[in-house]
Amino acid sequence: MANIDLHKPLSNEFVVPTNAQIGATESLAPRANENEVACMGTLTNNLHLMMDSFYKPTPDRYKILCEAKAFPSDQYAFASQAKAHGFDPEDAIIEVSPRDGEYTLREEDILATIEEHGSSIALVIFSGIQYYTGQWFPMQSITTKAKEKIFKEIGMLPVIRERSLLLTGHLEKLLRESKYFVPPSEAARQTPLNPCFTIITPTDPESRGAQLSLLFLPVGAGNMVKIFDYLAKHGVTGDEREPDVIRLAPAPLYNTVDDCEAAAKYLNEAFDVLTS
Hints:
Layout: H1 43-54, E1 63-67, H2 72-84, H3 89-92, E2 93-96, H4 107-117, E3 121-124, H5 139-154, H6 156-176, E4 196-199, E5 212-217, H7 223-233, E6 239-241, E7 245-248, H8 257-275
Parallel strand pairs: 1-2, 1-3
Antiparallel strand pairs: 4-5, 5-7, 6-7
Helix pairs in contact: 1-2, 4-5, 6-8, 7-8
């Protein structure tokens, strides 16, 4: 088993946010509410700020994949980022071009390029719409392919899955220790005088993902909504599904054991308030 620190978000190792949120002043937009306006830089400046966060090249994985003849200032930004990290743009930037006699890119050519150069690609970046031809790029298939290739190359999938198993297992343990937890076999016997919950997700870790589905009992008593509201007010983000289920899913890239413990703590507090 890998040495995984569950107290730190895994995402910190891959994406380092650098953008500060800037509030707009009323003088900038006198006809808009302050919370409806955001200060923005130029498109190229925004692109640089984004790439500062996501472009993390290494000696072996440093290339930028983009469409050929991207918007000119975008191309300058790609080249500037490569130079800033000590790479030659001629080598560091891979441009996917249309086939001879064609004007737009074929999806299969983009995916094939990712497959061919995946071990050296640090960033895949395409405009939503190609400014010159108006081609809409298939972002879902591009990002899916890039994730699969990069995760496969750097061995992230096993690490993420192992971390997910540990976090969800820890949350499950905490929930089962709650005095308000009952086994699924006892769910049908609960009365309105005894608010409680059970977990209807499979207990076998290999038969589930990150999610635990909590069924609040007795069904139809309205307890789920009250518990959900209490959790939300205390920073626990779950998902409510009728009838009477709240889904809690520790995200392995972002959540920690502290988040799991906070979720269990506030769940118990919510029941304490409900039954007081």
